[in-house]
Write a structure and sequence with these properties.
The chain is α+β, with helices and mostly antiparallel strands. The chain folds into three domains: 38 residues; 107 residues, Immunoglobulin-like, CATH 2.60.40; 73 residues, Immunoglobulin-like, CATH 2.60.40.4130. The protein is built from four helices and twelve strands. The strands form four sheets. It has a four-stranded mixed beta sheet, with no helix packed on it. A hairpin with an 8-residue loop joins strand 8 and strand 9. The radius of gyration is 32 Å and the shape is elongated. It starts with a strand and ends in a 13-residue tail after the last helix.
Length: 262
């Protein structure tokens, strides 16, 4: 009986071979030709393709916007605000928020906002990260944020950080440096020098005296949390991310007292 064999030779040439005699010998020949063809065309024995990782774009970030220095207590139950700044070369709106990490911690879903942090006329992106979820080392002097844009471009930005123990109170006003850095009050002055100078956290209206006026400021924000429209970080006196009875009680020991700077 007449038999037909079809072989793929040289990777692309189809040759129809008419064999008068079939059998194992012809089958072995066909297999050898097929293997040779694939190997020579690069379909076999090809090494893995090289993968290149794009270099992250360095962006500007501001840890605890408005604070100086960026004092942080790693045992804090609160959150660290970090701002991604819009610059002439980068738009913070391009950041895919779901890809962002700050020293290993993901941002809180309810702590994201867009505002002009550095007062330069454009909008910056602010996110909050639970302090205890970060991998910040006790001897760290800077902390970094990583992520990607919606186009997949990796980004990275770092800022200076000052790690402090819970009890460090440089100005002696009863509020630790780390708490004041979060409240954006002056860590080195115990009393305000003007209505615009936030220095003593308990003195909410910067009058150099804690009184009923300060206590009444809690009324519209009580029980609000980070991310709520009513939330005001200046009144979150324990820097825990929510305004409640504990914050109001912190006024108790100093109610009707005045302050002075040395």
């Amino acid at each position: 009986m007449r038999r037909t064999r079809v072989l793929l030779l040289a990777g692309s040439t189809l040759v129809i071979v008419v064999a008068l005699l079939g059998g194992p010998l012809w089958l072995a020949f066909a297999r050898a030709q097929w293997s040779s063809s694939r190997s020579s065309s690069g379909l076999v024995n090809a090494g893995p393709a090289a993968v290149t990782t794009p270099t992250p774009l360095n962006i500007s970030v501001d840890l605890k916007p408005g604070s100086d220095p960026n004092s942080t207590n790693l045992d804090s139950r609160g959150a660290i605000p970090v701002a991604i700044l819009t610059t002439p070369d980068f738009d913070a709106a391009d950041v895919d928020r779901d890809t962002v990490l700050f020293e290993g911690a993901s941002p809180l879903q309810h702590g994201r906002s867009v505002e002009d942090v550095d007062e330069d006329g454009d909008l910056d992106l602010i996110m909050h990260f639970r302090t205890r979820e970060t991998d910040i080392a006790e001897d760290a002097t800077e902390a970094c944020l990583t992520g990607q844009t919606f186009d997949g471009l990796p980004i990275q930005g770092c800022d200076i950080i000052r790690i402090v123990p819970p009890g460090l109170d440089s100005d002696g006003d009863g509020f630790g440096d780390a708490v004041e850095a979060t409240l954006v009050t002056d860590q080195l002055a115990a009393c305000p020098t003007s209505p615009a100078h936030d220095a003593w956290p308990a003195d909410l209206d910067n009058s150099a005296r804690v009184d009923v006026v300060d206590a009444l400021m809690f009324a519209p924000v009580i029980l609000s949390n980070l991310g709520d429209d009513a939330y005001n970080p200046r009144l979150n006196l324990d820097a825990a991310g929510g305004i409640g009875i504990v914050d109001m009680l912190l006024l108790g020991p100093v109610i009707l007292e005045s302050c002075t700077n040395p």
